[in-house]
Amino acid sequence: MDYKDFGLVNTKQMFAHASANHYAVPAFNFYNMETLSAIISAARDMHSPVILAVSESALKYMGPELLMGMIWGLNLKPENGVALHLDHGASFDACVNAIKLGFSSVMIDGSKLPFDANVDLARTVAEYAHKYNVSVEAELGTLSGIEDENTHGTESSYTNPDDVVNFVNATNIDSLAIAIGTSHGAYKRKSDNEELRFDILQKIADQLPDFPLVLHGASSIPEKYVKTINEYGGKMSNARGIPAQQLRRAVEMNICKINVDSDSRLAFTAGVRKTLFDAPSGFNPRDYLGAGKQNIYDNCIDEIKNIMGSNNQI
Fold first, then answer.
1. Does residue 313 fall inside a structural domain?
2. Is 302 a catalytic residue?
3. pLDDT digits (tens, 9 = 90+) for 282-297
4. 275: domain CATH number?
5. What is the 3-state secondary structure (H, E, C) of 76-117?
């Protein structure tokens, strides 16, 4: 189906507006009804554009029919500023499948390939997607860490600023994910003193003025959710995210989309663990799933206001 039938938009205009007004569009991953509902409610209440991100493994988990049924049920209109995005598509076929389902944006992740192979893959996806007015994101540089079966790696490499212009021109992509020190998962830094490579970001921004740049692996890993998880039976030591002030600085340097996944997982898990601990005789899923949903909503509100700066932009 055409994404316009679902009231979705692609990312072209939202990124242009974000870049001109120095904010980032949040890309929140979701996996079920509760996470989707929390994200869209927060975006609506904050009058923020939002990108609903779905990994291949999440798409498999939900099933394409149920997923698109939930999107249909949101009763969206273009003025709501909502995009549906395939996160870390691993192949041309995965991107084509998402576009046929009704996704308005896809990421083709060839970052682990040699440069020329990455270019060829991204260009092929862009040529296909643009026939349907679907936005395309690709990545240069690699991120370490583990999010799920589609996003994992043991090695990282920073984006080479000397490559970005050639890559963008050769592929005709719409946005570029870069590697400047973020990583997937909840263990992003070994110490509190680590900073993102703003020198690399500045060189890239100088090479690509006004071109949409994206940060993956940029969850802030809120300490309160890690503390709650550990207090109620979890074991998460040394979990560290990217501080909000560093992310805000990145936004001022032309980062106009920030991906958030781990924060939502932590928020949801903290709510479930605490609810089940506090009411050990309870067995109503609405109780503990509702607590997880509320935590995600609260976290999205906080990050929209204090990291993305995207509130009151639509």
1. no
2. no
3. 999 999 999 999 999 9
4. 3.20.20.70
5. CCHHHCEEEEEEEECCHHHHHHHHHHCCCEEEECCCCCCHHH
